[in-house]
Amino acid sequence: xxxxxxxxxxxxxxxxxxxxxxxxxxxxxxxxxxxxxxxxxxxxxxxxxxxxxxxxxxxxxxxxxxxxxxxxxxxxxxxxxxxxxxxxxxxxxxxxxxxxxxxxxxxxxxxxxxxxxxxxxxxxxxxxxxxxxxxxxxxxxxxxxxxxxxxxxxxxxxxxxxxxxxxxxxxxxxxxxxxxxxxxxxxxxxxxxxxxxxxxxxxxxxxxxxxxxxxxxxxxxxxxxxxxxxxxxxxxxxxxxxxxxxxxxxxxxxxxxxxxxxxxxxxxxxxxxxx
Length: 275
Description:
Blueprint: H1 2-30, H2 34-53, H3 63-88, H4 94-103, H5 107-133, H6 142-170, H7 190-198, H8 201-206, H9 219-231, H10 234-245, H11 247-255, H12 266-274
Helix pairs in contact: 1-2, 1-5, 2-3, 2-5, 3-6, 4-5, 5-9, 6-7, 7-9
């Protein structure tokens, strides 16, 4: 089994690097780095589904393998389509545009390296899918259906968050304002929260005392939390929002949870009312 899993890691890494090299070509040709996230999402979904369905000892995929493959495919299609529609309506993604501005003339080379690092950093996510699909039992268990419920809740929560933000931004009266309606009143990044939440499905499916490899599926939610909260998610987005919204966003930061949905801070709300 060790050799099989090591081989899978190498194959997953190679596939992701090739696909993200393609994302770099698209970004360079179009000048729109928004397509990077679109391609990354579909690449993760494709690689994850293929790794889940990869035959075990030459046998046809079992019910769990199909279940895990369908889950990652649903996630990928929903999120990838949403990002694609958004990317088609913009000239460039502000986060990547800021990176390019900082990199200057060396931007093409550094963008390629950045996307290759992103590909390598995606390996834990796909490997978690691979591990979950290979739980050593052909029969579906309660854990499997609980994993389905968790991932579906993540997809629905993220879709609702995206729809609320889109509706807010489409209203001309809200131009220049900060979205603080619905789920956005409870978290500054509810879409990121539900994205992270959905990745809890794979350790729920995989972990068992009889399957030590299952604990490797914890890499997915741990890595996703680190990326979203500390690296390419919240930090550059909040820097952009502070530049564009200023004090209004600072007030939003003061009263609203950064990541996990929680009621707004009462003291901050009272201070805003008094002011």
